[in-house]
Amino acid sequence: MPKIVAKSQVSSSSDGVPDKLVANSTDMQQRTLQRHPQLTSASTVHCICGEFNLVIDKSLSALPRRRTDAATIVPTRDSAVAKARIFKLNALPAPEPILVERQGGVERQYKFSCGRCTLPIAYQTTPPPVKAGAYLYVLHGSLSQVQGQIPPEAFDGEEG
After folding, report:
1. Residues of the chain with confidence (pLDDT) below 50
2. Can you give the pTM of this predicted structure?
3. Which of 20, 110, 117, 121 has fewest C-beta within 10 Å?
């Protein structure tokens, strides 16, 4: 569905994106609620470009953050520490992992990017598919609860 970005520019989430990646967030939310009736509501989350990227059973702001990079931790499996979250990620996996030097070693990050603008929005430490590992990490400031609104944390670390 096209949306007006400016008087002279029209943008559509299907521009250059295969049909299987384009999803209406309301439809996705309804399908998730049908498949998982224990959910009373689902939270939809969008990339800063406006593309729908995530539907989840709990607000991202209510989930814990990782100390190393402030990424939001989304548990994909039940454990003694956390309950698995029910979610659907609409993103493209990167072909190769990124190696990040951490204290005590190197971490492999398998990134997931927005299908519309290719902004990295999440990663996991195991190879795709999504939910292959114990956790999915949503990058701090990459997603917004309100479509078309850039979250304030997107500018964390910026000066000026």
Report:
1. 4-23
2. 0.73
3. 20
